[in-house]
Amino acid sequence: MFHAVPNGDAKIDHVLIGTRGLYTVETKTLSKPIRGECKITVVDGRVAANGQALNRDPIVQAKAQARWLHTFLAESDLRAFVQPVVVFPGWLAEPFDIKAVGVWAFEPKAMNAFIDRQSAVVSPEQVRAMASALSAYIRSQS
Predict the structure, then answer these.
(1) What is the arithmetic mean of pLDDT over 115-123?
(2) How far is 2 from 14, CA to CA, in rounded Å?
(3) Measured distance CA(123)–CA(12) in Å, rounded
(4) Rounded to an integer, what distance in angstroms lies between the CA atom of residue 27 and that of residue 15?
(5) pLDDT tens digit sequence for 22-46
(6) For residues 5 and 12, is the Cβ–Cβ distance under 8 A?
(7) d(CA 15, CA 31)
(8) HEC-encoded secondary structure of 96-118
(9) Which among 33, 61, 86, 137 has the fewest CB atoms less than 10 Å away?
(10) Using CA atoms in the order 88, 1, 79, 71, what is the torsion angle rounded to 10 degrees?
């Protein structure tokens, strides 16, 4: 796992690289209401917290981060699908059509279960090569 990966003017909060896939993870920490539910909904590809649309669209951001990582790795002839993920600590994400939206969105505790359901798609050798390339890039940005 990599944290705070620079990508241009921004940073990817987390990158996970393993045999079950590659994941960019955007963490959205939202203030909770004093009372009531803490519910995330995704409707028509837009995210809302307790019915209020978020100012910045985390789905667009997550997809851009995944594209950046995919392009970065492809430049080293390392090709694999990168799954964009948005996590909302402490908030319950209502089920939605993940395939149609193209982004996973949920409470961080649910992430392991989602990854565990994935089949192996990357060899251990590819994992090492991708991790090595990303590690070298991060060091070069310091």
Answers:
(1) 95
(2) 5
(3) 24
(4) 11
(5) 999 999 988 888 887 889 999 888 8
(6) yes
(7) 24
(8) CCHHHHCCEEECHHHHHHHHHCC
(9) 33
(10) 60
Residue in the block written with tokens 């409707």 = 43
Q: Is the pLDDT of residue 56 over 90?
A: no
Scored b (16 or more CB within 10 A) or e, 92-124 reads: ebeebeeeebebbbbeeeebeebbeeeeeebee
Q: Which two tokens stand for residue 47?
A: 């995210």
Token pair, residue 14, equals: 């987390």
pTM: 0.91
| Burial (CB count within 10 angstroms: exposed 0-12, middle 13-18, buried 19+), residue 73 | buried
